């Protein structure tokens, strides 16, 4: 199973959108449409991720917890177009 973390990122229309950062297993690839299609069976529509960032490792603190503010900053730095369908 891939490692992942979800954060809220600022959005002009909705205030915040769900963004997911993940670390895939070696040799695996994932894209936003396939992630959304899979998650649609488990999550409400407003909880579906609208942004995806594939990383080599999630940012963690000394305790091993994911640093969500740093993760949100990574999404803002990526600053790509919003691929919401």
Summary tags:
85 residues; alpha+beta; three-stranded mixed β-sheet; 2 helices; 22% helix
Structural class: alpha+beta
What count of structural domains?
Answer: 1
First-to-last CA distance: 26 Å
Shape designation = globular
Q: Overall mean pLDDT score?
A: 87
User: What's the architecture, going by CATH?
Assistant: 2-Layer Sandwich
Please characterize this protein's 3D structure.
Helix content is 22%, strand content 26%. With 85 residues, the protein is an alpha+beta fold. A three-stranded mixed beta sheet has the order 1-2-3, covered by helices on one side. The chain has one domain: 2-Layer Sandwich (GMP Synthetase, Chain A, domain 3).
